[in-house]
Each structure stands twice: as structure tokens, then as C-alpha cells.
Amino acid sequence: MSHAVGADGGVSIEMETCPPTAPSATRRLVRVALFGCGAALVLFLFLRIGPTAVLGSFRQLSWRLLIVIVFPCVALKALDTLAWRFAFPDDRVPLPALATALLAGQAVGSTPASAIGGNATMAWTLRPRVSLRESFSSLIIVQTTSTASQGLFLLLGILVARHAFPLASALVRIMECLLVLEVIAVVGFIAVQLRGLVASGHGVLRRLGLAGAASRLAATSIDDALVAFYRHQPRRLGLSLACNFLGWLTRAGETWTILYFLHAAVPIGTALVIEAFGTGISFATFFLPMDLGVEEGGAVAAFVALGLGAATGLSFGLVRRIRELAWTALGLLLLAGKPRPSLAALGAQPA
């Protein structure tokens, strides 16, 4: 879900009691550099396609941009929150607390220079209510259901594209390749979870001198929670998967809405194909902060392949970017005045 809980592109499980500062600084530097490359690509597309055409699209959008920012993104965030709630073994965490943690984590995950990931921020925000063990295991589970539902959504997009756009064979082939990657990723991710994902990762870090022995018990505890959930909570697992899938469908509805307001209305099937292609590209480039440049470039490629025009594609991508920035600002506002988590603080918390 960028839309998913893992807005930072992955599940950040940092359990080190004494994490070194150099790797963290290097990681931030790499993220900032990638962010700069993405921004340069967006600027290149803007100048190449033509500022006049893109700005003209925004003039057509006018005040409707506020509608796009709020709706249907409210429904999308609600589905994200429900998907995460069902990744816990029970419903004792109130939905408002989950929604606040979700928005805060996604905001931090969208910050290129952030010292920790968005998922670690979510776990830290919930720590008065649930243990870090439960928070981290739920985040791994919801990331799994998000990726699995994304694969199902991509499959649906492929089926629609084959029927509606028989001439766009290149686009369909790319989507099929992305689907294969997602299937491999989901199967592999579940397999390593059942074999002890966190403890294995901790063992590697310990051999490299990047983790202390004190966190081994916490890592094993998270693995036990994952296995117990998959074995004893199939209903909640299915509900999390369903909420995430509805979230992808909601994003397709958002795509249709944006294009309608840009006076480039398309059938709902076309909007679904555009969104499915975009989510596949986002999955393949999960390591890029905010998917900056890739998301806009992917939109341009999809729109050109479907005969909708590069200017409309870039305008669509920029509208999505503005919406994302608005919700990121809201998430950071929710964090204002609260203690900010650190790797050392996370490691010091009881599992």
C-alpha cells in the first residue's frame, strides 16, 4: 500500500541496542541523492513536455484540486487503517490511534533524510498501547497482505488491459513481468517469515557486529507472533487482504476522478489499467523515496501507451504528488510536539 502501511517502501525493523551512526548517515545520504535524481527527472519531463500544457491542465482543475486532496483519499486512509487493524490478533487498539500512527509513519517514510523508517515510527507511536513485538509483527503482516493484494490488483489490470487494449501489447507484457516479480516476492516473503525472518536477519546483523545479543529474544518473539498469526488467525488475515485490495480499487477510483476533473475522462476500466501499471512500477522501485520521478515517468509512459497524451500523464502524476504532500504535511503535524523516535530508543524499549 503506498498507499499501504509501508510508505517508506519496506518494513523497517530496527532492533539494535547500540546501532552505529555511520550506516544510518550513509543511508540518509543515499536517499537524499535518489530523491534529487527523482526531482531532476520530474523537472526534465516538465520542461520536455511543455510547461504550458501542464499548467493549462492545472487551470482546468482549479478549485477541484481540493476535492482530489480530500476525497477519495479519506476512504483510502480508512481502508489502510482497517487493513492494519486486522493484522493484530485482536481489536484492542482504537482506530483513531491506528490512523494517527499510520499518517505519522507514512509522513516520516516520505521524508528523504529521515533517520528511521515510517514503520518504526508507527510502532513507536503505538508503544503506550501495544508492545513493539506486536506492532512490528502486525506491520510485517500488513505489508504482506498489501503486496499480495497489489499482485491481485495487477492481475485484474492485466485481464482488463488484454480485453480493452489489444493493441497495447508492450504495456501488457511489462505488467505481466511485474506480476511475476510480485508473485515471487510474496511467496518468498511468506516463506522466510515462517522460517524465522526477524531472527535470521538479527543473526546476520550480529555476525556483522551491528546488533547486540539483548535483541535476539525480541527478534525470536516477533517470529513466534508471525507464525501464530498465520496459523490461528486466517479470518483476520483475509480481512486485511480484502481491505488492502479495496484500497487499490479506491486508488483506481481516484485516478478516474482526477482525469474527469482534468477534462480527460476515461472509462473506469482504463483508470484501473493505469493504476495497476503504476502500482507495478511502484513495487519494482520500492527503494526510491516517495517514488519521486518514477511515479510521474510511469504515468507518462502509461498514458502515451494508451493514447491519452504525455501532458495529461504528467499532470495526473503531479496532482497525485500534491495530494501526497498535503497528507504528508498532516502526518508531520500530528507528530509535532511529540517525542521523536530514534534507533537507540527503539532498541531500549521492551519487546
Write the layout of secondary structure elements.
Layout: H1 21-49, H2 51-61, H3 64-70, H4 73-85, H5 95-109, H6 118-125, H7 132-164, H8 169-194, H9 197-207, H10 216-232, H11 234-261, H12 268-284, H13 294-305, H14 310-335, H15 343-348
What is the strand content?
under 5%
Find the structural class using helix and strand composition: mainly alpha
Number of helices: 15
Taking the alpha carbons of the first and last residues, their distance comes to 26 Å
Strand tally = 0
Contiguous runs where pLDDT drops below 50 for at least 5 residues: 6-23, 202-214
- Global mean pLDDT: 84
Question: In words, what does this structure look like?
Answer:
It is a single chain. By secondary structure, the protein is mostly helical. It has one domain. Helix content is 74%, strand content 0%. The chain has 15 helices and no strands. Helix 6 crosses helix 7, helix 7 crosses helix 11 and helix 7 packs across helix 12.
What's the short version?
74% of the residues lie in helices and 0% in strands. By secondary structure, it is mainly α. Helix 2 crosses helix 14 (310-335), helix 6 packs across helix 7 and helix 13 (294-305) runs antiparallel to helix 14 (310-335).
Keywords summarizing the entry:
351 residues, mainly alpha, 74% helix
